[in-house]
Amino acid sequence: MEFAELESKPPLALHLIWIIVILQFNLDGKSKLYKDVSLAHLFMMNNVHYIVQKVKGSTELREMIGDDYLRKLTGKFRQSATNYQRATWVGVLYCLRDEGLHVSGSFSSGVSKSALRERFKSFNGMFEEVHRTQATWLIPDTQLREELRISISEHLIPAYRSFLGRFRSHIESGRHPENYIKYSVEDLESAVLDFFEGCPVSQHSRKRSQ
Asked: How far, CA to CA in Å, does 7 sit from each of 1, 12, 73, 128, 129?
């Protein structure tokens, strides 16, 4: 915070802000122990969000630290959520690009089926791994969990729907299309609902069938 912002605050408020700052440094240090960068960002998001909710839930705490610092904390956990999405989904969405799929020559031009098959295989493998892993991660706050799922869907589902719409026919006209198109759009929508529940995918499937 700027020194001018702190000058006007009473000693107890300054002490509280200092405690929160130290806590954030400690959390940041612990997050670096995670080998998975996406999980490190999720860890920071969960914990800073928890601090924000505690402050918002106490009139005394909110009055002491002030709305300006509360906005900074809110920005911190939202930035962690953005960092998580970049770390996790940029590579997955990169599979759904058009670049590298089109071929042209002196006699013909079109889509390289071998490149397209590899692209679908890459997407399937990456999504399966993310789905399997991140279903076991937990976001305790129900609203935060739902917000992040919605944000993931808003990026993933339209990209996949568009990619599938453009290239499905090229795969289905070849052999064993089921080896490459493993997900319908509805399958992905359903799979995203498994994320951040804190239990393996197999348990989610049982819950949905009950």
From this structure: 11, 12, 19, 52, 50
Q: Which two tokens stand for residue 65?
A: 């630290």
**Three-state SS at 110:** strand
Q: Count other Cβ atoms within 10 Å, centred on residue 132.
A: 14
Is 5 a residue whose pLDDT tops 70?
A: no
Task: Check if the beta carbon of residue 53 is closer than 8 Å to that of residue 141.
Answer: yes
pLDDT category of residue 9 using cuts at 50, 70 and 90: confident
DSSP class per residue in 61-94: HHHHHHHHHHHHHHHHHHHHHHHHHHHHHHHHHH
Q: What's the sign of the alpha-carbon dihedral 19, 20, 25, 31? A: positive
Identity of residue 131: H
Cα separation, 180 vs 169, in Å, equals 12
